[in-house]
Design brief:
Elements (H helix, E strand, L loop, with lengths): L2 E6 L5 H13 L3 E6 L1 H11 L7 H12 L3 E5 L17 E7 L1 H8 L6 H11 L4 E5 L6 H12 L3 E2 L13 H16 L16
Parallel strand pairs: 1-2, 1-4, 2-3, 4-5, 5-6
Amino acid sequence: MKHILVAITGASGSVYGLRLTKELLRAGCRASLLLSETGLQVLNYEAGLGWSADGGVRQAQMRAHFATGLLDDLDNRDQFAAVASGSSAPDAMVICPCSMGTVGRVAAGLSETLLERAADVMLKERRPLLLVPRETPLSVIHLENLLRLARAGAIVIPAMPAFYHGPQSLDDLVAFVVGKVLDQLGIGHELFRRWDGREEV
């Protein structure tokens, strides 16, 4: 069973992280969900969930929301969590969506929160760290930080949905981005129709 850590930060687009977690659980993975403080606020605002800042209450809310699978709720203040140690690192970590503030702090090697420490662990242990930035336009600082992380081994998957698969809804666009993340994790899915060669138009 793969253990995937999903972190949701304060960038707009928390729906990507929620859908990713759902698909991981559906695929039989163990998922740990880690919300930054701002990530929780944005998630509640955009998704209308009303999840609590209290860890115990939120864990129950999260399990009710996803309804199935092995799901852990992590506290961003808990530096004693298992994922903070290289000896117990998850198989992969996905920061989805990833704010530019998070990109900057991880690129600088800061570890003031569990999210930052877990990302640092993934890089030092050479395990997959996937970033799904959701920002536009990007400044030179943003681009340089992303390049620094890519050079350190992170995989950058911008939240840029395609249109060749004929999306019919917002959910189709979200599914495309989530499917690209799953591809990088080596997890099979049928979230979008793949391009299979030139098609007549």
